[in-house]
Amino acid sequence: MAHLNYYHYDFQAMGSPCAIQLYAGSAKKAKQAARMVMDDVYRLEAKYSRYRADSFVSSINRVAAQGGSIQVDDETAGLLDYAATCYQQSDGLFDITSGILRRAWNFKSGEIPSQETIQALLEKIGWHKIHWQRPVLAFTVAGMEIDFGGVVKEYAVDRAAALCREAGIEHGLINFGGDVKIIGPHDDGSPWRIAIRHPRIPGGVLHTLLLHSGALASSGDYERCITVNGIRYGHVLNPKTGWPVNYMAAVSVIGEFCVVAGSASTIGMLKGEDGPQWLNELGLPHLWVNVQGESGGPLLEKALM
Fold first, then answer.
1. Which of 55, 23, 51, 19 is nearest to 37 (CA)?
2. What pLDDT, in 10s, does the model give residues 90-119?
3. DSSP designation for 274
4. pLDDT at 199
5. Mean local confidence (pLDDT), 262-269
6. What is the three-state SS of 192-258?
7. How many CB atoms lie within 10 A of CB 33?
8. Which of 126, 247, 255, 303 is the most buried (most CB within 10 A)?
């Protein structure tokens, strides 16, 4: 068997620090694989970033503002199908139309929005208000928006791992802002050590996992939050109430695909006190920590053994 060298590439994309770690027989092969991954991530960012006026998602939202309809390509249709499934499986809590709530919640301002402000936005939220029949996406209420922020980074992670495998890379790890997918174990067959950050202790580690395969995603009120009158308001917003979730502090889920682990961890957060039961019924390895500091889930139990 040919000797493999370890290569590491860091870059910034999708508002996150991104890392590609891989083993390859030559620097050239490693670089080609890394370049393919980066090009694909930049492509997805250009297509789905709501911060770019020239992105496809901005084109969709200009149509949505008028209450119109638009034809979408196959890749976008796949993401919309997945979002529709998540909406159904979460009883309407995972909702890609809820991004407009950020207009009310400015986590840099240190102020809580009024109920009137939130109520006005809630009238424009709800996947059920959209008529989606491949390839046509139609908006029944003017002023709606869609935001793929809860799906596209994890989708990019899964694609990155698949592209590396297609390029002949069998050992490596993709990490985009804490969303992880394993290409394959280290070249000696040993697992990757992956630390899950503590939601309340800066630089603190909640738990370390040893993984040979699969994907890991976490959701939590890690960075963006405001504290007003001693109450902490995180950035994970409930699309039904317009207010931040206030039970869970963080949820991590392992799945075969990062996109599934990501939506499951987000739904676990949004479910609040029902989160632990919902996660158990889902049956994927997970751990959770609530705002009181209580924690649970099979990943923790395994660690404590």
1. 19
2. 999 999 999 999 899 987 777 899 999 999
3. G
4. 84
5. 97
6. EEEEEECCCCCCCEEEEEEECCCEEEEEECCCCEEEECCEEEECCECCCCCCECCCEEEEEEEECCH
7. 25
8. 255
